[in-house]
Amino acid sequence: MEEAVYKVIEIVGSSKTSVEDAVQNAINKTGKTVRNIRWFEVAGTRGYIEDGRIAYWQVHVKIGFHVDQQMQEENRKETGSENKSNLDEPVKYRCLVCGYVYDPSKGDPTAGIKEGTSFEDLPDDWRCPECGVGKDQFERM
Ligand SMILES: [Fe+2]
To answer: Cα of 72 to ligand 1 centre, how many Å?
Structure first.
């Protein structure tokens, strides 16, 4: 099972009409530069008063977005539109200790791992063929 990782940014949205509108404004602005926004949390609310009336609302919002998907979006931009179909290809993993790269399209013949075997499907006792560390020492590329 893949565990989701989120990055959180903080932003202050404002609105003359309501707190909800201020939050929506913050999300709209953030959405122009950040993809895969998944949730928000109101960290604080305040308002400005002019002549005894609420002039506008300011809402301090924490916005969370999915990191892995953000990375995939960036990869898509880097590789260009002609490679869009490659997004479904199995992900490579790199050994943090020695830099060996596990490529699912090649497998690991030294350990009898067939080509087409995803990193997730490698046996738990599989070891880096170069330096011998376990799967927990690998990072997604
Ligand atoms: Fe290694």
So the answer is: 24
